[in-house]
Known about the structure:
The protein is α/β, with parallel strands linked by helices.
Amino acid sequence: MLIGIDGNEANVMEKVGVSMYTFNLLKEFHKHADSSTQFITYLRNTPQTDLPEENDNFKYVVVSGSFAWSHFFFPLHLFTHKKPDILFCPAHYIPRFCPVKTVVTIHDLAYFYYPNEFLPKDLFKLKNWTNYALKKSSKVISVSENTKKDIVKFYKIPENKIQVIHNGFNPSLLSSSPPPPPISPSSPPLLSKYILYVGTLQPRKNISALIDAFVILKKDHLDLSLILAGKKGWLYDEIFEKVKNLNLEKSVIFSGYISEAEKNELYKNASVFVLPSLYEGFGNTPLEALAVGTPVAVSNNSSLPEICGDACLYFDPNDTIDMAKKIDMILTDPNLRQILINKGKEHVKQFSWESCAKETLEVLRDPEINSG
Length: 372
């Protein structure tokens, strides 16, 4: 069997979100490549050096073209070259007029709930190109039950067409040795007591409310800091302006994009990890924090209760007092901290990229999809 993959999301320098999903699946698929299951990964550009190495059963094909790549250049290549038996598209979109059966992964439908956070052209693509992919694909993979419900709600896709397969997380976090490489001089300082947020800086992540909760906490925790680690997203200026207006520049630290080693160090030294998001399709970062024994507090909405289970504390993301209260409980109650740490390390054993890849391959190999 020859499995085709649109690998463009993984072929970038700074990998977050869907890029990490695609990258980790490529690494796992590479382990499964043999004479009976071969892979061909299609890219716009030359493969980055961190992608899995080619071998007889795992190949890359660079398809030239920029504008309308997925609508013209990629499908044209599929029509004129040897076709895979199935094409896996890990990020919402599939090629137009595709001559191959497809399986697509949908990560979240945040754009229906928060349309103002997207540029008009991006919103149009997300709504319409995702709709096309859902209708034309032979099978749909959803990263959570919550996202599956949203797909059914907004696109009226039959439930039996959708397979829920949870993401994995970085397995190196579970290892206590060897220690991670030292962080670079430009990295945020490792403070003695800090709240950590990891993710894109954008309104949907509700960072403004986290800053308000932080102000409340500072009254009783004078030595407490807040590290916001992640790339600047849509409408991030408001977050920076708020920190400035509240005179919090010395205690709220913006790290920008950080490497995996830097991120792991921040997780391991944080007093508490907080995800105040208003909507998450899955939510990898709480799992990463739980894996290293960092207590976690997250919003009580979307997919987060499904993914985090009973291993963390939940708060109303629209109630900064409740958010501050739950964070304070973790900071001040050593017994609660230990309970959450123990539960967290057990809970994350349910998630791995190995399992994610195995279940995804089962879908791609499904005889019902590949027959006819």
